[in-house]
Structures are given as structure tokens and as C-alpha cells.
Amino acid sequence: MPGMAARSPKLKTSPDRNPRVGALLRVTLIVVVPVLLLSGGGLFFAPASVRPLWPWDISPFNAAFLGAFYLASAAGLTLAAWGGRWFPARIVTPMMFVFTATVLLVTLLELARFNFAHGLTYAWFVIFLGLPLASGVSLLRYRTWPAPTDQLTPGAWRSLLLALGAFYLLYGAGLFLFPAFVSAHWPWPLDAFHARAYSAIFTASAVALLGLAQEADPAERLALGLSAAALGLLAVFGLVIVNASRHTVAWTNPGVWLWLALFGVYFALGLGLIWWSGARAAEGRA
User: Fold this and answer.
1) Is residue 283 part of a domain?
2) How many structural domains compose the chain?
3) CA 251 to chain CA centroid, nearest Å
């Protein structure tokens, strides 16, 4: 129908293979970055001040981990917000939608946990109602925009991305559906609420990796690489810092080393993606 077609932005005929996204998505990205930096920085670097104000009762280990994820997410989203281009927005937008929609669902299932005497609780609901809506609308608007077909993913990278994407998808589904069983190897106890909220991290990662398995623009590789490397590094660093004062992590437990390996893979993957983005860019200039 003509009226419906008019709602979808069209690519202009231009030598620019990476066009700018529209105002809704650009503003969403610009707004979410400082929110992530402030909340993530507060939870990670100043938990004593932020934890009492958080929308729910959050333990030191969960505060450090959630702060690490927010800071890591800001790394990739900053790149997308700064340029305002389709690549890497093609990858970060579905990640944002999957993560925020899953956390919104978990939030609605666990309303009794939230302290509505805190102003941050209402900010939480505004953010996690607004972001799935904005990113979902953007996904619909740009559904016909092309992938970077001139940047095909090499066979070895394709196999790695598909394997890790499938693993993260299964692991995220397991955390959501069987939280007690799947999170048993974590270094600190996870209740069902936090396990299900964290499942969104892995399902969003899976969406990004599977999205890069066929085509991957250098900007997309760099954005995902920055976030993955930062998450792997900060998650482990946060665990060590919190445990230095609490001494509750059983380092001899094989499950703890599985968790460390899980985020070690994130760190190594991130470094690999960053290297790949630079290597291919150098090839294009040669």
C-alpha cells in the first residue's frame, strides 16, 4: 500500500554505501550512551553510593557485573552514535532490542522486587519501555536496508561466529528457562531474577554474532569487538575486586573456572574482531 511504503525510509542513490540512519535511531543511540556510562560507572566504580538507590536490592557481585556490562555496551554504542551510520547500527540495533525486550519481560515478571520509593525505579521503567519500542520501530523501518555484501565473512570467521552464536543462544535460553541449573557454576549465587536478566546478554550476543556470520562491515566488527573485549575484561576484573573484600569465591571450584573461561572467550573474541576490522581496512587501502 502506498501509505505503508512511505513509512519506510528509502536509500538514496549515492556512492555512499553506508548511509545515515534517521533521527529516531540516532537520538536513541545518543541518549542511551550517557545513561549506560552513568549507571555502569556508578555500579562498577561507586557501588557504595549507587546500590542504595538502585531500583532493587542488588548484591556487590551483581552490581559489579551489571556495571561491567553497561560500560562494555557503551563502548560499541558510542561508535554507532558518533557516526550515525547504518553500519554498525545494523548490528547494535537488534542487540539493543533483544536485550531491552528480554529485561522488560523479566522486570514485569518480578515487579515485587522493585522499590518504588526510589526515583531510579521510575527511570528504569521509562528506559526499558522506551528502548524496546524505539529499537523495534527502527528494525521495522530499516528492514529492507542492505547488508554489506561487499564485505563477505571469510570461512574460518564464519564458522567461529556461527558456533559461538549458537552456543550463546543456547546458554541464554538455558539461563532464562532453567536459571538455577544453568547458573550453578557462577562464582556467586544467582537468583532466578538475575539469571534471567543476564540471559539477555548472551542472546543479544548471539544475535550480533549470527548477524556477522555472512557479511561484516569493519565498523560492525569494531563496535562488537570493543564491547566484547570490554565485557570480558571488566566482568573478570569486577569479580576480583569485589571478592578482595568479601572472600567468598571458591577459586578451586571448576565451575568458577568455567565462568572465567566464558568471559575469557568474550575478551579474546573482542580482540580478534578489533584486529579483523583493522586488518581488512588496511587491505582496502592497499
Assistant:
1) no
2) 1
3) 27
Please report whether residue 5 resides in a domain.
no
Is the residue at 1 inside a domain? no
Domain of 67, in residue numbers: 19-278
Helix (H, G, I), strand (E, B) or coil at 152: strand
pLDDT per residue over 139-177, tens digit each? 999 999 989 989 999 999 999 999 999 999 999 999 999
Q: Compute the distance between CA of residue 270 and CA of residue 230 in angstroms, rounded to an integer.
A: 8
Residue with cell 554498525: 88
How far, in Å, CA of 114 to CA of 112, rounded? 6
Rounded-to-integer distance, Cα 107 and Cα 270, Å: 29
* SS3 of residue 268 by DSSP: helix
pLDDT in tens, 41-71: 999 999 999 999 999 999 999 999 999 999 9
Whether residue 11 lies inside any domain: the answer is no
In terms of Cβ atoms closer than 10 Å to its own Cβ (0-12, 13-18, 19+), residue 246 is exposed
Give me the helices (H) in 6-154, please: 23-45, 47-50, 60-83, 86-109, 119-141
- pTM, 2 dp: 0.92
What residues contact 235, with CB distance under 8 A and at least 6 apart?
Answer: 65, 68, 69, 263, 266
Asked if residue 148 lies in contact with residue 220, where contact means CB atoms within 8 angstroms, the answer is yes
Backbone angles phi, psi at 252, to 5 degrees: -85, -5
- Each as own residue / partner, the long-range contacts of residues 178-186 (CB below 8 Å, 24 or more positions apart, any chain) are 184/255, 185/253, 185/254, 185/255, 185/256, 185/258, 185/259, 186/255, 186/259
Q: For 20, list phi and psi in degrees, rounded to 5.
A: -75, 145
HSE at residue 194, side-chain half, CA atoms within 13 A, is: 18
DSSP element (H, E) containing 217: none
